[in-house]
Amino acid sequence: MTERPAYSPGLAHHFETHAQQHRAATLGIWLFLGSEIMLFGGMFMGYTIYRILYATAFEQIAAHTHFWFGTINTALLLTSSLTMAMAVHHARAQNYQKSGRWLVPTAVLGVAFLALKVVEWYLEYRENLVPILGWNFDAHGVAQGPARLFMGFYFVMTGLHAIHLSIGVCLVVGLMVLLRRDKIARENPSKVEIIGLYWHLVDIIWIFAYPIFYLVSA
Amino acid sequence: MSPASDQPRHAQIHPGAEEGSLREIVAVWLGLIFLLCATVIAHFLTHGMLALLAAFGIAIAKMGLVMFYYMHLKYRPHIVWIFSAAAFLWLIIFFGLSLSDYVTRHWILLVP
Amino acid sequence: MAPTLKNYLQDGSTLRSWFLSTDHKRIAILYLLSITFFFMIGGTVVGLIRLELLSPAGDVVSSDTYNRLFTIHGVIMVWFFLIPSIPVTLGNFLLPLMLGAKDLAFPRLNLLSWYLFIGGGIFTLVAVVVGGVDTGWTFYTPYSSTFANSAVITVAAGVFITGFSTIATSINFIVTTHTMRARGLTWFRLPIFVWSLYATSIIMVLATPVLAITLVLLAVERGLQIGIFDPSLGGDPLLFQHLFWFYSHPAVYIMILPGMGVVTEVIPCFARRPIFGYKPIAYSSIAIAILGFLVWGHHMFVAGESIYAMLMFSFLSYAVAIPSGIKIFNWTVTLYKGRIYMKTPMIYALGFLGLFTIGGLTGLFVAALAVDIHVHDTYFVVAHFHYIMVGGMVSALMGGLHFWWPKMTGRLYPEFLGQVSAWTMFLGFNLTFFPQFLLGYLGMPRRYHTYPAEFQVLNVMSSLGASILAVGYILPFFYLVWSLRWGKKAARNPWRATGLEWEYADSPPIKTNFESPPIVHGPAYDYDPQKEVNFD
Prior knowledge:
By secondary structure, chain B is an all-alpha fold. Chain B contains four helices and no strands. In chain C, helix 12 (307-335) packs antiparallel against helix 13 and helix 13 (344-367) packs parallel to helix 16. Chain C contains 18 helices and no strands. The longest helix of chain C is centred in the middle third of the chain and has 33 residues, at 192-224. Chains in contact: A-B, A-C, B-C.
């Protein structure tokens, strides 16, 4: 059996080896990501039911989403996954300087996504497409009920996604601070990798949200 | 998988923590952008069921690229693959049995 | 010679050392105190309910108050008592010990899970203080989303927060089991309690997020008036029920699997025989976890599902009973030709066997479509699930608490009082709930506080039983607390049980559990019925 080092930087006291600790962190984050998939999955399920029940109305109202906002946002998020992957790569090679530098565009792209999203929501508000709190809702000729259902799901799902993305941005900024202050242990850059996995999941959720809201219309 | 000494120091300390090269990261991104363009083109050129299949097929392909390469599934032991697949499997159960209700609600009973 | 290490209870006595502890054993004790507190609240509420049901007229409380009483009883007992119960107390305490580890994989996450639990609990208690909720613990729409005049969002928020406590615990358990087993401890040498915690954790991590999103959608519909389940918008209230029960049916397996695990530890010890059919019991735990996700529609047989979906769910509900049946057979066969010692934990475990069998079999009754049309929403269903959750799970919790009490506290509980309580509980339980099967079959609906006079005799029996049952729960509270100061000190292994927690850890254990990492050489349950045992 490998002798456990008396003190090993970055190795928690209840683990025997770094490999064990990394394995635990990997399994743990994937379980958490699985729970996030189930969380969003519930909403995807609800959307699918209504899509089947009200196919025509959904197609019609979906024409009023802002296609290019959605598409550009998708490109931004995919690129942020690139920059995140770069940051993780350098962290694992222990080039913490380079890693921190790649985290900057990651956070910036995330914020850009959120900014565009807010603008998009504002446009939808101006077009009376927000079915909340009894606000004036203009279904643009589509059946009222299903139109409101579609837009309701749109706001709840993109809203929850935006919350998750915001948390991601905060985590990335927090990482940047830790890296700047040399607080990431030399032997255990797992933190960057773990947050990277979370970031990629937020990207994946958007990869599926994009077609169901923007690629629906006939 | 390349020999241990080729791996960055991190992977040497933590066997089982390998990952791909910088080239791979960029290539995957190009693939993702290509798929995004494809999905935009498909949106304008296809209708109905074909459009649906195209959109979802491409989404699944994008997800596959992100999970396999960016999330390092390719380099992880198979137990991690099982963990990553579990939620999707459960969603299939959820979708399947729920839809079985909605799709059959208005069927007429076979026995008069 | 090295000085004797302090045990985990002595190692730090400041508030900070308890409330900021990442030691899984201390967190387990924090949880034990918390769930006991919630159990008392949920139990007091039921006292009022049974008081009201002593007479046919609604004379103790108004119908609106009654609605709030049974709702808060359900919410507290399900989410703040039963679902956490064994996993967060016995599970947190024992899992690392049974695996030969120093702690769980993520000790700080463990502490966070307790704070999330308390946070969620505070939200719910605040809701109770401002008048409670009257929707039933099931929050069905459109009543809950549109019409209810009560603190729905507050309670939903409380349950939402607590859900993350559950998810955190389950992630911890799964990862610990995969990565921190001692040398020689292969999967099929694990105690079955570990298998049951693992299966429970699978359910927790996959189902609880769906509850979370369901509550979010409910809150959003109620608070922001976004139509999702609203029929006037073409929404489907049944969608809520699909979402809700996709979680809540597997949740009932969360509320029984750990109890089954405890029973599988107690019976071999007090029959002095290895568990019969180790692998079938291990696999059946996983089978229950998986199959349990396929049957949720059986809660919606009268709600308007399609008949084809109903047929499938009914069939699958029969299938899910099979792994439980396998366990019952295996526990029973383990007793055969064993050397039986009727100690307190064994009384609880044998009680579990009988009561869970009744509860489980009546589950098959309600799984039959024609029967369920008749007994749905009656006391038959109430009796069915209380036989499993109270007769089964709570018995197992009590049995497990007594069994591992010496390990956790270093003290023995008074055996005579233990046996008196176990029997009192068993008799009180049956007197409370058996009449409810009859009431339900005769047509008394649940959630009503008035009923026709012909049902009074059975209701009086049930209320009488409830007061006896209460004694059965209050007694242990007193003598267990008494034992902390005046109980006989326990040796390392007073039950001569097998398992790393008994063989290599002190009673109570030191903070890091073992002086050196244990190594496992053979299968679990190495008991011999030929040898007579002298328990301490």
